[in-house]
Design brief:
The protein is mainly beta. 12% of the residues lie in helices and 46% in strands. The chain contains 1 helix and 12 strands, in the order H-E-E-E-E-E-E-E-E-E-E-E-E. Strand 10 and strand 11 form a beta hairpin. The protein is globular, with a radius of gyration of 22 Å.
Length: 172
């Protein structure tokens, strides 16, 4: 009887976690990760430097671990953003998929620095794995504990050639 009650409590907790996680579906989230999902549109990669660096280089690797893009980036202390247009070092658009981002920073003393990256993505679903609830972003399962913020997506509008129906008829 105690085991049934415990199982019921666990099931209730999982249900509550799943229910609250569903609120993220369709939202754009920013989360701590070195993995980004390129979906054919530019995306922002944010990183923070705790001190000024002698050198800061952002590198993007494909799923095979091959270098796709390398760019010297901001070296001053503070939060920084790099917008990746989905192009490789030769200017070619890469295939949609999961990529890894690494910011290598060398301090003025010549020491390597730890640099965390914050990436964005749109939540397309929710799943549970071993009793934990994850948000699905692209091909990745993201732990809710890494989410820093969530917002409504910004949809870009493009003009259309379709007529609008704002004319009135006057019987003529």
């Amino acid at each position: 009887n105690s085991n049934q009650k415990l199982d019921s409590l666990v099931a209730l907790q999982l249900g509550n976690n799943m229910s609250s996680s569903l609120d993220y579906v369709g939202l754009d989230i920013s989360y701590l990760s070195s993995e980004i999902g390129y979906e054919g549109r530019p995306l922002d990669i944010n990183y923070a430097l705790s001190e000024a660096t002698a050198e800061s280089v952002l590198r993007i690797y494909d799923g095979k671990g091959e270098l796709v893009r390398e760019e010297s980036v901001e070296r001053n202390v503070g939060n920084h953003r790099f917008t990746w247009d989905g192009r490789d070092n030769d200017g070619n658009l890469v295939a949609e998929g999961t990529y890894e981002v690494v910011v290598d920073a060398i301090s003025a003393a010549g020491d390597g620095m730890d640099v965390a990256t914050v990436v964005q993505g749109r939540v397309r679903g929710v799943e549970t794995q071993n009793g934990q609830t994850f948000l699905l972003v692209g091909e990745r399962a993201i732990s809710q504990s890494t989410v820093l913020n969530a917002s409504q997506p910004h949809y870009e509008t493009t003009p259309t050639d379709e007529p609008t129906d704002d004319s009135t008829t006057d019987g003529a």
